[in-house]
Specification:
Blueprint: E1 3-5, E2 11-13, E3 17-18, H1 25-38, E4 42-44, H2 52-61, E5 70-75, H3 83-93, E6 99-104, H4 111-123, E7 127-133, H5 137-145, E8 153-157, H6 165-174, E9 177-181, H7 196-205, H8 209-219, E10 223-224, H9 231-238, H10 247-254, H11 269-277
Parallel strand pairs: 3-4, 4-5, 5-6, 6-7, 7-8, 8-9, 9-10
Antiparallel strand pairs: 1-2
Bound molecules: NADP nicotinamide-adenine-dinucleotide phosphate.
């Protein structure tokens, strides 16, 4: 497993398992356990997913030591006013006495209070790294400018048609690691997997177009957390090492970028209102 060294020296596995919409808690636990068995060492959850307990049970039941598993959770904007306490509750649900990475889930509501709570948890050693999610470049630069700890990670929608080049420029400027959510566009861009160029590259390596997508993102230095609740797909999504795309292939894949998010664009006021009502 390749890792990314975060801006505070913490090593983060670059491929992990996403759990958004893994609402069947028994299945979520089973899939997380299976993932650890296959070799995954990184699981992404959130207070809003309602499955932190299933993730915690899976890590506890697995033969992999807790110290070898990287767990990320995210604070719901509904808990920004008592973010500190909410993380302690997450820790209980996750059956752990520390969390590897905690993110502010969205740049809405009282983010400054929540960030200062996170800075406190980080200083106390309860959390190994802190970061943000769904932060566009302007919000990211603003947060960095007016606080002490620079986020270690920004988790934003990133896939073939939304490569986040502008935001990435600013992440690189401040040493913030780029993490992709929805690397497969949450199943809303499946027609892309019929694309001739993508299929041709995939056939060259005897891989699937989704494996090429993950490989492309990893080679771009992007941390990926594809979600699945199917064991065979867990293996497929993990089998993206041991080959390297050429610069020409990388260029061809870069040209898929339309710079337009499919899922959560925090720049649209109606999206902000929808999330606040969530
Ligand atoms: N920070 C945020 O606001 C935010 C937002 C969204 C997501 N996330 C995180 O990022 C993770 C990944 O994003 P996502 O779950 O939204 O979307 P995603 O990983 O892009 O796509 C998941 C979808 O792809 C399907 N899939 C997965 N592997 C496949 C394969 N090999 N072949 C065919 N279909 C496959 C899954 O179906 P099955 O499950 O049925 O296999 C599911 O429908 C989430 O789970 C979550 O942890 C964060």
């Amino acid at each position: 497993m390749i890792t990314k060294t975060l801006n505070n020296g913490v090593e983060m596995p670059m491929l992990g398992l996403g759990t958004y919409l893994s609402k069947d808690l028994e299945l979520c636990q089973e899939i997380c356990e299976k993932a650890l068995e296959i070799g995954y060492r990184h699981i992404d959850t959130a207070q809003m997913y309602g499955n932190e307990e299933a993730v915690g049970k899976a890590v506890e039941a697995s033969s992999v030591p807790r110290s070898e598993v990287f767990i990320t959770t995210k604070i719901s904007h509904k808990r920004y006013s008592d973010a500190y306490e909410s993380v302690l509750e997450s820790m209980k649900r996750l059956r752990t006495d520390y969390i590897d990475l905690v993110l502010l889930h969205w740049p809405f509501a009282d983010t400054y209070k929540a960030w200062r709570d996170l800075e406190r948890l980080y200083a106390e050693g309860a959390v190994r790294a802190i970061g943000v999610s769904n932060y566009n470049a302007d919000r990211l630069v603003d947060l960095i400018g007016y606080n002490n700890v620079v986020p270690a990670v920004d988790q934003v929608e990133t896939n073939l048609t939304c490569q986040q080049r502008e935001c990435r420029k600013w992440m690189d400027t401040y040493g913030v690691a780029h993490e992709s959510y929805a690397p497969f566009g949450q199943g809303r861009m499946d027609e892309i997997y019929e694309d001739k160029v993508l299929l041709e590259i995939a056939s060259r390596y005897n891989k699937t177009p989704r494996q090429i997508t993950l490989r492309f993102l990893l080679q771009e230095g992007v941390i990926c957390i594809p979600k699945t609740v199917h064991a065979e797909r867990l293996s497929e999504n993990f089998d993206v090492f041991g080959f390297t795309l050429t610069e020409k292939e990388m260029e061809a894949l870069r040209s898929f970028d339309k710079a337009s998010p499919l899922i959560g664009n925090p720049e649209r006021p109606e999206r902000v209102l929808k999330a606040l009502a969530w």
